[in-house]
Amino acid sequence: MLSLEEEHLLRQKLFDLRQEHRDLDTAIEVLRMTPDYDQFMLSRMKKRKLLLKDMIQKLSSQLIPDMNA
To answer: d(Cα 60, Cα 69) in Å, to the nearest integer?
Structure first.
């Protein structure tokens, strides 16, 4: 079971990751609208976005109480 401080830190980290994920989503859309955009940059941004999604899911699962407890 998480302490209140640990839970608070996890929730803050989760908030930060979600914000970065949204920001990347916006940046990807802006980049796609740019003529002759950099495919390599787009690929890196998409990979980062997927990594963030995985991190968000992992942290979210840590905040769900264990049903077997």
So the answer is: 18
Do 54 and 18 form a contact (C-beta atoms < 8 A)? no
Q: Residue with structure tokens 């609208």? A: 33
Question: Taking the model in full, what pTM does it have?
Answer: 0.85
Positive or negative torsion for Cα 6, 10, 15, 16: positive
Paired tokens of 19 = 């914000």
CA-to-CA dists, residue 20 to 8, 10, 51, 56, 64, angstroms: 18, 15, 11, 11, 22
When pLDDT is cut at 50, 70 and 90, the band that residue 33 belongs to is very high
Residue 43 reports pLDDT greater than 90: yes
